[in-house]
Amino acid sequence: MPPPPPPPSHLYIYPTTLHIVLNLIPITSISLSKHQIEMDIALNNTHKFLSKIATNDGHGENSPYFDGWKAYDTDPFHHETNPSGVIQMGLAENQLCFDLIQEWIGNHPEASICTPQGGFDFKEIALFQDYHGLPEFRSAIANFMSRVRGSRVEFDPDRIVMSGGATGAHETLAFCLANRGEAFLVPTPYYPGFDRDLKWRTGVELIPVVCESSNNFKVTLEALEDAYDKAKESNIKVKGLLITNPSNPLGTFYDKETLKTLVGFINEKNIHLVCDEIYAGTVTRENEFVSIAEVLEEFPTICDHNLIHIVYSLSKDMGFPGFRVGIIYSYNDMVVNIARKMSSFGLVSTQTQHMVASMLSENDFVDNFIKESRNRLAHRHNMFTRELAQVGIGSLESNAGLFFWMDLRRFLKEPTFESEMTFWRTIISEIKLNVSPGSSFHCNEPGWFRVCFANMDDATVMVALERIKSFVHETRMLEIKTMAKIKTKKQCWQNNLQLKLSSRRLEDIMSPQYSPLNSPMLRAQN
Amino acid sequence: MAIEIVQPSVELSKIALSETHGEDSPYFAGWKAYDENPYHELHNPSGVIQMGLAENQVSFDLLEEYLESNLESSNWGQKVSGFRENALFQDYHGLVSFRKAMASFMEEVRGGKAKFNPERIVLTAGATAANELLTFILANPGDALLVPTPYYPGFDRDLRWRTGVQIVPIHCESSNNFQITPEALEAAYDHARSMNIKVKGVLITNPSNPLGATIQRKVLEEILDFVTRKNIHLVSDEIYSGSAFYADEFVSIAEVLESRNYKDSERCHIVYSLSKDLGLPGFRVGTVYSYNDQVVTTARRMSSFTLISSQTQFLLASMLSDKEFTRKYIKINRERLKKRYEMIINGLKKAGIECLKGNAGLFCWMNLSPYLEEPTIESELAIWKTIMHEVRLNISPGSSCHCSEPGWFRVCFANMSEETLEVALSRIHEFITTRKQ
């Protein structure tokens, strides 16, 4: 008998709000169905029978981040069989370069242990369970990591530790660097998975470093100090700072000066710096990306190197999330040693190590792949942002990642997270796109959405764009009608904020470039 | 390899600094001795023979033969889109075909005497991860699991290190062949309670590592009654189920549950892996099979930290669902292991060494207590060091398995050729002969 599905969450409320609400409302004031009561009893019994970790919400799946996925799962878009289905734009996958990989696979049967050419390796590979990993695997990863950074820096294969994807890497580092109840600072907005990866089984806390749209969400020293002080006031010991560079969900990367500032900060506070560089290969303006490794190389005395750790994976740059190739690269010998022992809980299959070792040690292939991937991502990114700008939808300027950070603030009825959720539900149910609401990334300002663009083919891109544009067009037509109605009623709306907002939209609508008659889609069709 | 510990300027976590990773145990010290001087028939005939690693190398030819004749199903090469789909697949439910194949294989191993529902199979990267994951789900830090001694040294790390859970031993004695008794269960439980430790479950390994013997049905029933009475969990690590020499001598907890109509089954969970039965430790294929819906859901979520490579799932899905192949493999594998076992038992007997009567696994439980200077752990470790450095065999001392009686050793026999086993046996023979004089 399969496990029962999780109860449907009818309340699309930002997770912490939900928790607060549930704690404040006395049970008797809510009329519970018999089913609900039975479920509560069952849950109560479970609470005693299983651990706290097993019965809390630390798995993070009640976040709206995953609700959108569920909407997609129940009604997935397909060109032929389900053309009105939901298009998945909430999953940061890189599907643009599989043709290159498949070609390589076809030409290198020896990389597989199941072919006549590679089969003689089968036994040796199948038996190898040393947590150091195959030496050729580690060398290949070090080589790849270096080339992704334009060969500006080298990586030592002996510092490479395997993990169960970057998911496993983050959890392992949290286990190594912090005790239960201690904390990591994390700039907002951040990847929702961190709430599970860093906190769930480790008992470690995450403290947000609030970043604001007013300065393009850059991390400031003030924000860092502020977060650190808040932790101190709450008697929480901060053990490290976690940054994702390039950023998920922003798609931006840190400039050298900011990195140096961060390193200065952690060095002064004597806390760790974990740099998740999982999107390093998705930077479209290659020469401008600076890895923490480069900072250490250029300024070797800038900090105690024992504080610096990098998380990497092949899930984004290569598009191999299924192969679970996670990497911890630490400049701290002890951390390398301990993390390696912990890697027993999440080693990379030697079959995969073997294949990856072959593929990533071939420099011609690697260099070409990195170059092509960047170009295709840039092209896709530009297509989206350009088309959306034409209908007045802006996004944060970015040059990396498999997504962009879309600005839909002006579409919200009110600048609240509730409005954001309402609007998000509309996007899913009416526009049929699964995008991720900023609140699920702990963004401090409502109205931002992460939109993934690299996990679909060109035709689907066109459909997605078409849907967005149609929606914008319809919204404007509706507003024009509404405005017309209001005017004829001749009421005094001078102090009404709503009118002011609507007036602004009206101006936008009425200016020539946005006139429906001048719609780029119309032009394209002609 | 000695690690130069430079005092870190910022402290690492307590977990990182603790020794619960267990690598200072003699269990691992022996591996190091082997690594430094490994035996090789031609290049290093006087090197250390590895008998401390429970690997199954006796049936690889069968796997290789299968792959040769089933290229299409194990390679993406034939299907252009196959690679892409596989590389992208990261759903923690796992490939449906693979889960079905695992369920099917687990049934075959039990001769069809138990049924497994693919929906209850949760995939993890190895049994190491499965055991840790279950512990996180069943117990809070400070709580305890009861584990019969002697037990696999890796449990000290897997069950305790990052979870903060404790192991309280259920003492088993040679006088009744180390079988688990109701008295021993109660004693362990009471001991935990007397230390104010909350007991959350019992974890058994069946067939047992290091004993190399299956647990009798009667004992399984008693254990099940015990955990039901105490309202705690039962984890049955059945990683060696396919390595029982006689199919009908292995009884799975699944069979016992089935015979009870699954009453009280929500407290039962099975751990399995392909590392021993199929000899594929490198591929990291483990599974948690739980009769408890909540545990399945939670375990699945936790498996995000330790998923099996989709590439490996794909390869094995076709192999394990090929009933003709699995039936043949299981049968031949059992026969070969039995033959090896008999070879080592007879060889040791000739040298005057007795072993526990075993019927499963990749090792035998050797009794050297008559040869100890004194019936103490120190004497055991002394003779162990001698065997390692002079006889040049890496075997595992019973104390590293928390055996309550000194003098027992686990000796692996399936990770080498027959010729190497002969060499090992002759060395032991010589050693004992010399010692007697």
Describe this structure in words.
The complex is a heterodimer of chains A (526) and B (437). Chain A has 526 residues and is α/β, with parallel strands linked by helices. Chain A is built from 19 helices and 13 strands. In chain A, the strands form three sheets. Chain A has a seven-stranded mixed β-sheet with strand order 2-8-7-6-5-3-4, with helices on both faces. Chain A has a four-stranded antiparallel β-sheet with strand order 9-10-13-12. By secondary structure, chain B is α/β, with parallel strands linked by helices. Helix content of chain B is 43%, strand content 13%. In chain B, strands 2-8-7-6-5-3-4 form a seven-stranded mixed β-sheet, sandwiched between helices. A four-stranded antiparallel β-sheet of chain B has the order 9-10-13-12. The chains are: A alpha/beta (526), B alpha/beta (437). The interface between A and B is large, with 84 and 80 residues. Chain A: Its EC number is 4.4.1.14.
Task: Show the helix and strand layout.
The complex is a heterodimer of chains A (526) and B (437).
Chain A: H1 15-24, H2 34-49, H3 52-55, H4 64-74, E1 87-88, H5 98-107, H6 122-127, H7 135-148, E2 160-164, H8 165-177, E3 183-187, H9 193-197, E4 205-209, H10 221-233, E5 238-244, H11 256-269, E6 272-276, H12 292-298, E7 308-313, E8 325-330, H13 333-342, H14 350-360, H15 363-390, E9 394-395, E10 403-407, H16 417-431, E11 433-434, E12 436-437, E13 448-452, H17 458-489, H18 497-510, H19 520-525
Parallel strand pairs in A: 1-11, 3-4, 3-5, 5-6, 6-7
Antiparallel strand pairs in A: 2-8, 7-8, 9-10, 10-13, 12-13
Chain B: H1 14-17, H2 26-36, E1 49-50, H3 60-69, H4 71-74, H5 80-88, H6 96-109, E2 121-124, H7 127-138, E3 144-148, H8 155-158, E4 166-170, H9 182-194, E5 199-205, H10 217-230, E6 233-237, H11 253-259, E7 268-273, E8 286-290, H12 293-302, H13 310-321, H14 323-350, E9 354-355, E10 363-367, H15 377-391, E11 393-394, E12 396-397, E13 408-412, H16 418-436
Parallel strand pairs in B: 1-11, 3-4, 3-5, 5-6, 6-7
Antiparallel strand pairs in B: 2-8, 7-8, 9-10, 10-13, 12-13
Helix pairs in contact in B: 6-13, 6-14, 7-12, 14-16
Domain Aminotransferase class I/classII large (chain B): 49-428
Pfam families (chain B): Aminotran_1_2
Keywords (chain B): Pyridoxal phosphate
